[in-house]
Protein backbone atom coordinates (compact mmCIF):
# COMPACT_ATOMS: atom_id res chain seq x y z
CA UNK A 1 0.00 0.00 0.00
CA UNK A 2 1.31 3.44 -0.96
CA UNK A 3 2.01 5.83 1.91
CA UNK A 4 -0.31 8.80 1.43
CA UNK A 5 1.27 12.23 2.06
CA UNK A 6 -0.15 14.48 4.76
CA UNK A 7 -0.44 17.49 2.45
CA UNK A 8 -3.26 17.28 -0.09
CA UNK A 9 -2.38 17.34 -3.75
CA UNK A 10 -5.64 19.22 -4.37
CA UNK A 11 -7.71 21.08 -1.79
CA UNK A 12 -10.93 23.05 -2.30
CA UNK A 13 -12.20 25.53 0.29
CA UNK A 14 -15.56 27.27 0.10
CA UNK A 15 -15.94 26.74 -3.65
CA UNK A 16 -19.18 28.08 -5.14
CA UNK A 17 -20.57 27.91 -8.67
CA UNK A 18 -23.68 29.53 -10.10
CA UNK A 19 -25.27 29.23 -13.54
CA UNK A 20 -27.56 32.24 -13.95
CA UNK A 21 -29.97 32.24 -11.01
CA UNK A 22 -29.24 28.60 -10.13
CA UNK A 23 -26.72 28.04 -7.32
CA UNK A 24 -25.17 24.68 -8.26
CA UNK A 25 -22.33 24.44 -5.74
CA UNK A 26 -22.19 26.08 -2.31
CA UNK A 27 -19.15 26.20 0.01
CA UNK A 28 -17.62 22.95 -1.25
CA UNK A 29 -14.70 21.44 0.68
CA UNK A 30 -12.68 18.61 -0.84
CA UNK A 31 -9.21 17.09 -0.54
CA UNK A 32 -7.38 14.56 -2.70
CA UNK A 33 -3.90 13.27 -1.89
CA UNK A 34 -1.35 11.59 -4.09
CA UNK A 35 -1.65 7.80 -3.96
CA UNK A 36 -5.32 7.65 -2.98
CA UNK A 37 -8.70 7.24 -4.66
CA UNK A 38 -11.46 9.56 -3.44
CA UNK A 39 -15.00 8.68 -4.53
CA UNK A 40 -17.27 11.65 -5.23
CA UNK A 41 -20.82 10.50 -4.55
CA UNK A 42 -24.28 11.99 -4.75
CA UNK A 43 -27.69 11.62 -6.35
CA UNK A 44 -28.50 13.06 -9.78
CA UNK A 45 -28.28 16.84 -9.59
CA UNK A 46 -26.02 16.83 -6.55
CA UNK A 47 -23.34 18.81 -8.39
CA UNK A 48 -20.73 16.10 -9.01
CA UNK A 49 -20.16 16.75 -12.71
CA UNK A 50 -20.14 20.50 -12.14
CA UNK A 51 -17.46 20.10 -9.49
CA UNK A 52 -15.34 18.08 -11.92
CA UNK A 53 -15.77 20.87 -14.48
CA UNK A 54 -14.65 23.41 -11.88
CA UNK A 55 -11.49 21.43 -11.11
CA UNK A 56 -10.76 20.79 -14.79
CA UNK A 57 -11.24 24.45 -15.74
CA UNK A 58 -14.27 23.91 -17.98
CA UNK A 59 -16.58 25.85 -15.64
CA UNK A 60 -14.40 27.99 -13.34
CA UNK A 61 -15.51 28.54 -9.75
CA UNK A 62 -17.18 31.87 -8.93
CA UNK A 63 -15.74 32.07 -5.43
CA UNK A 64 -13.62 29.98 -3.08
CA UNK A 65 -10.01 28.86 -2.93
CA UNK A 66 -8.36 26.04 -4.88
CA UNK A 67 -4.99 24.89 -3.58
CA UNK A 68 -2.45 22.74 -5.41
CA UNK A 69 0.21 21.23 -3.14
CA UNK A 70 -0.63 23.79 -0.47
CA UNK A 71 -0.52 26.95 -2.61
CA UNK A 72 -3.53 28.84 -3.99
CA UNK A 73 -3.95 28.54 -7.77
CA UNK A 74 -6.30 29.87 -10.42
CA UNK A 75 -8.00 27.32 -12.69
CA UNK A 76 -9.85 29.43 -15.23
CA UNK A 77 -9.55 27.16 -18.28
CA UNK A 78 -8.62 23.56 -19.14
CA UNK A 79 -5.09 24.67 -20.05
CA UNK A 80 -4.54 25.80 -16.45
CA UNK A 81 -5.62 22.41 -15.08
CA UNK A 82 -3.40 20.50 -17.52
CA UNK A 83 -0.49 22.76 -16.62
CA UNK A 84 -0.84 21.79 -12.96
CA UNK A 85 -1.02 18.10 -13.80
CA UNK A 86 -4.79 17.49 -13.72
CA UNK A 87 -6.29 15.20 -16.38
CA UNK A 88 -9.98 14.43 -16.90
CA UNK A 89 -11.80 11.53 -18.56
CA UNK A 90 -15.45 12.45 -19.13
CA UNK A 91 -18.28 9.96 -19.33
CA UNK A 92 -18.66 10.33 -23.13
CA UNK A 93 -14.90 9.52 -23.57
CA UNK A 94 -14.65 11.87 -26.62
CA UNK A 95 -12.96 9.26 -28.81
CA UNK A 96 -13.01 9.19 -32.62
CA UNK A 97 -14.34 5.78 -33.63
CA UNK A 98 -12.87 5.88 -37.12
CA UNK A 99 -9.32 6.46 -35.82
CA UNK A 100 -7.09 3.74 -34.43
CA UNK A 101 -5.71 3.61 -30.88
CA UNK A 102 -2.55 5.55 -31.79
CA UNK A 103 -4.55 8.19 -33.65
CA UNK A 104 -6.85 8.74 -30.67
CA UNK A 105 -4.04 9.00 -28.15
CA UNK A 106 -2.18 11.64 -30.15
CA UNK A 107 -5.15 13.49 -31.67
CA UNK A 108 -4.28 17.18 -31.41
CA UNK A 109 -0.80 16.49 -30.04
CA UNK A 110 0.77 14.62 -32.92
CA UNK A 111 4.53 14.04 -33.00
CA UNK A 112 6.17 15.39 -36.13
CA UNK A 113 9.57 14.81 -37.70
CA UNK A 114 10.81 17.01 -40.55
CA UNK A 115 7.28 18.35 -40.97
CA UNK A 116 5.64 14.92 -41.30
CA UNK A 117 3.73 12.80 -38.79
CA UNK A 118 6.14 10.46 -37.01
CA UNK A 119 3.89 7.40 -36.98
CA UNK A 120 6.69 5.12 -35.77
CA UNK A 121 7.43 7.24 -32.70
CA UNK A 122 3.76 7.70 -31.83
CA UNK A 123 3.16 3.95 -32.05
CA UNK A 124 6.22 3.28 -29.90
CA UNK A 125 5.02 5.75 -27.24
CA UNK A 126 1.53 4.24 -27.33
CA UNK A 127 2.85 0.71 -26.97
CA UNK A 128 5.12 1.69 -24.06
CA UNK A 129 2.30 3.50 -22.25
CA UNK A 130 -0.23 0.68 -22.65
CA UNK A 131 2.37 -1.84 -21.56
CA UNK A 132 3.06 0.14 -18.37
CA UNK A 133 -0.67 0.27 -17.70
CA UNK A 134 -1.04 -3.47 -18.39
CA UNK A 135 -4.18 -2.87 -20.48
CA UNK A 136 -3.76 -5.99 -22.61
CA UNK A 137 -4.40 -4.06 -25.83
CA UNK A 138 -2.29 -5.55 -28.63
CA UNK A 139 -3.59 -4.25 -31.96
CA UNK A 140 -2.90 -0.52 -31.84
CA UNK A 141 -4.00 0.05 -35.44
CA UNK A 142 -7.55 -1.24 -35.21
CA UNK A 143 -10.33 1.39 -35.29
CA UNK A 144 -11.50 2.30 -31.80
CA UNK A 145 -15.11 1.62 -32.85
CA UNK A 146 -14.21 -2.09 -33.04
CA UNK A 147 -13.04 -2.21 -29.41
CA UNK A 148 -15.18 -3.26 -26.46
CA UNK A 149 -16.57 -0.61 -24.12
CA UNK A 150 -13.97 -1.51 -21.51
CA UNK A 151 -11.12 -1.24 -24.02
CA UNK A 152 -12.38 2.16 -25.18
CA UNK A 153 -12.45 3.32 -21.57
CA UNK A 154 -8.83 2.21 -21.20
CA UNK A 155 -7.85 4.09 -24.36
CA UNK A 156 -9.49 7.26 -22.98
CA UNK A 157 -7.65 6.87 -19.66
CA UNK A 158 -4.36 6.15 -21.43
CA UNK A 159 -4.80 9.28 -23.57
CA UNK A 160 -5.24 11.39 -20.44
CA UNK A 161 -1.95 10.05 -19.06
CA UNK A 162 0.26 11.17 -21.97
CA UNK A 163 1.37 14.31 -20.14
CA UNK A 164 2.20 12.40 -16.91
CA UNK A 165 -0.54 14.04 -14.81
CA UNK A 166 -0.59 13.73 -11.03
CA UNK A 167 -4.37 13.88 -10.54
CA UNK A 168 -6.92 12.01 -12.64
CA UNK A 169 -10.64 12.87 -12.65
CA UNK A 170 -12.87 9.99 -13.77
CA UNK A 171 -16.57 10.63 -14.46
CA UNK A 172 -18.52 7.35 -14.18
CA UNK A 173 -15.82 5.19 -15.82
CA UNK A 174 -17.75 1.92 -15.39
CA UNK A 175 -21.32 3.14 -16.00
CA UNK A 176 -21.83 1.26 -19.27
CA UNK A 177 -19.51 -1.70 -18.71
CA UNK A 178 -20.09 -5.36 -17.99
CA UNK A 179 -18.66 -7.24 -15.03
CA UNK A 180 -15.39 -8.30 -16.68
CA UNK A 181 -14.81 -4.91 -18.30
CA UNK A 182 -15.54 -3.14 -15.03
CA UNK A 183 -12.97 -5.33 -13.25
CA UNK A 184 -10.35 -4.41 -15.88
CA UNK A 185 -10.95 -0.69 -15.50
CA UNK A 186 -10.90 -0.87 -11.70
CA UNK A 187 -7.65 -2.81 -11.86
CA UNK A 188 -6.18 -0.07 -14.05
CA UNK A 189 -7.25 2.65 -11.59
CA UNK A 190 -5.78 0.63 -8.72
CA UNK A 191 -2.52 0.42 -10.69
CA UNK A 192 -2.49 4.20 -11.12
CA UNK A 193 -2.94 4.70 -7.37
CA UNK A 194 -0.05 2.32 -6.70
CA UNK A 195 2.07 4.53 -8.95
CA UNK A 196 1.32 7.48 -6.65
CA UNK A 197 -1.39 9.21 -8.67
CA UNK A 198 -4.35 10.87 -7.00
CA UNK A 199 -7.75 9.85 -8.41
CA UNK A 200 -11.14 11.52 -8.00
CA UNK A 201 -13.76 8.97 -8.99
CA UNK A 202 -17.41 9.82 -9.69
CA UNK A 203 -19.54 6.70 -9.40
CA UNK A 204 -23.06 5.54 -8.59
CA UNK A 205 -21.84 1.99 -8.06
CA UNK A 206 -21.30 1.34 -4.35
CA UNK A 207 -19.63 -2.00 -5.08
CA UNK A 208 -16.97 -0.19 -7.13
CA UNK A 209 -16.55 2.43 -4.41
CA UNK A 210 -16.13 -0.14 -1.63
CA UNK A 211 -13.72 -2.18 -3.75
CA UNK A 212 -11.50 0.69 -4.86
CA UNK A 213 -11.86 3.98 -2.98
CA UNK A 214 -10.00 5.00 0.16
CA UNK A 215 -12.34 7.85 1.05
CA UNK A 216 -15.74 9.07 -0.07
CA UNK A 217 -17.04 12.64 -0.26
CA UNK A 218 -20.82 13.00 -0.56
CA UNK A 219 -22.58 15.92 -2.22
CA UNK A 220 -26.26 16.64 -1.78
CA UNK A 221 -28.06 19.54 -3.47
CA UNK A 222 -24.73 21.18 -4.24
CA UNK A 223 -23.34 21.01 -0.70
CA UNK A 224 -21.06 18.70 1.25
CA UNK A 225 -23.06 16.09 3.14
CA UNK A 226 -20.44 13.75 4.53
CA UNK A 227 -16.86 12.45 4.37
CA UNK A 228 -16.16 8.78 5.01
CA UNK A 229 -13.31 6.34 5.37
CA UNK A 230 -14.57 3.68 2.96
CA UNK A 231 -12.75 0.92 4.83
CA UNK A 232 -14.59 1.58 8.08
CA UNK A 233 -17.90 3.22 7.13
CA UNK A 234 -20.83 0.97 6.34
CA UNK A 235 -22.59 1.08 3.00
CA UNK A 236 -25.78 2.09 4.82
CA UNK A 237 -24.08 5.15 6.34
CA UNK A 238 -22.85 6.34 2.97
CA UNK A 239 -26.19 5.74 1.23
CA UNK A 240 -28.03 7.59 4.02
CA UNK A 241 -25.80 10.59 3.38
CA UNK A 242 -26.44 10.38 -0.39
CA UNK A 243 -30.23 10.18 -0.04
CA UNK A 244 -30.46 12.83 2.66
CA UNK A 245 -31.63 10.50 5.41
CA UNK A 246 -28.60 11.84 7.27
CA UNK A 247 -28.02 15.56 6.80
CA UNK A 248 -24.77 17.47 7.25
CA UNK A 249 -22.68 14.50 8.30
CA UNK A 250 -19.52 15.82 10.01
CA UNK A 251 -16.09 15.46 8.44
CA UNK A 252 -15.40 11.94 9.72
CA UNK A 253 -11.94 11.39 8.32
CA UNK A 254 -9.39 13.49 6.47
CA UNK A 255 -7.29 10.67 5.09
CA UNK A 256 -6.56 6.98 5.20
CA UNK A 257 -5.21 5.67 8.46
CA UNK A 258 -1.57 5.24 7.54
CA UNK A 259 1.79 6.00 9.05
CA UNK A 260 3.02 9.26 7.58
TrEMBL record:
Naturally occurring in which organism (per UniProt): Streptomyces cynarae
Taxonomic placement: Bacteria, Bacillati, Actinomycetota, Actinomycetes, Kitasatosporales
Keyword Nuclease: no
Pfam families hit by this protein: ABC_tran (PF00005)
Domain of life per record: Bacteria
Segments forming domain ABC transporter: 10-246
Name under which the protein is recorded: ATP-binding cassette domain-containing protein
UniProt cross-references to SMART domains, sorted A to Z: AAA
GO molecular function: ATP binding
Listed PANTHER family: CARBOHYDRATE TRANSPORT ATP-BINDING PROTEIN MG119-RELATED, SUGAR ABC TRANSPORTER ATP-BINDING PROTEIN
UniProt keywords, alphabetically: ATP-binding, Nucleotide-binding
InterPro entries: AAA+_ATPase, ABC_carbohydrate_import_ATPase, ABC_transporter-like_ATP-bd, ABC_transporter-like_CS, P-loop_NTPase
SUPFAM superfamilies in the cross-refs: P-loop containing nucleoside triphosphate hydrolases (SSF52540)
